[in-house]
Design brief:
Order of helices and strands: HEEEHEEEEEHEEHEHEEEEEEEEEEEH
Helix content: 10-25%
Oligomer: single chain
Number of domains: 2
Largest sheet: 6 strands, antiparallel
Structural class: alpha+beta
Radius of gyration: 25 Å
Number of strands: 22
Distance between the termini: 42 Å
Strand order of the largest sheet: 1-2-3-4-5-8
Strand content: 35-45%
Amino acid sequence: MSPINFIAGIFATIAAATTTPVAQPGKIRTFGDWVVGCDNGGTCRAVALMPEADGAAYDDWGGPVSILRTAGSDDIFKVHISFEPGDIDRYQMIVDDQLVDTGAIVQGDYPVEIVGEDALKVATAIIKGRKLALRGPGGENIIRISLSGSSAALRYIDEKQDRVGTDNALVAKGSKPFDAVTPVIPLITVDHWESAKLVPETSAIISLVEDSRCKDERYGVVEDQVYPLGRRGNRFRALVLISCGSGAYNFSSAPFVGEYVEDKNTDGGWTFSPAKFDRQPSWGGEGTDPLLVNAGWDNQNQTLSSYGKGRGLGDCGSAENYVWDGDMFRLTEASAMPECRGAYEWITTWRANYRKSPTAASAAQ
């Protein structure tokens, strides 16, 4: 490669990394008793669901099996199994009455984690099998999983990672060599203002609530939240989360951004507008003012989270994380589980990184 082309390639890579595309979370598909999805970085995860047939119950289920594969040249491949290990310290994995793997059980999020060639061997058995069981050393049942749809789910990963017809595919195998390309994760530049403590007074919040759609959705004890977004010159901003209805396990908030201009010659007070998002929070839906669920705010990093449960068990729903860029909230991570069938292993559908702008960082020093 010539020096000119090499340098041009470097600048093209930098431009791709620093340009913030419109956030487009990946889709999640269901195949039989398995669900699968990929993020914009090409990392895909397939997750087993509680079987719909055979009258399966939670006592038989035990927990989900998930298979994760990255798209880049690192080709990280893992099989995760989530359950409560109790006193059991070893496992045997049985697929259609055949032993396919055995090992130690550890404490943590994944009591069983199988990686590399061992994970590939397990995935191959899953693709060809009908049922999977994880048993303790005495033959006691830990989990039982249906493999219906697993082959289609893993073929979907082959398609999304451009492995179809290659010698590196899981299901759609071929003879072509696989040419891995590591996707570029978007890098968001944020412009955080100088730290300040000024926030709207209570009377301003009351007026905002009275003029909002949340006025008739506030039941029982409600709690509005206000956080400073900083100052620039004589301008101050604040994030206001208005309580906007609640259920047994979901608490909704309508986010607003308030601005105050300090001027000794006038007292204009605070003005408010619905917070802007580059990708609308999934709970509120597109085409409406944004709505967050079980919202969380990190003041130091100026990040905002929304976590909506589809039901109290927490085995389905959607979640988003955003960073304040100085003008709007930009999506940095999204995950979801559309099927309420016992899978607590949600699938990531979007990832982005962020950094402070050089101007804002130097001003803060």
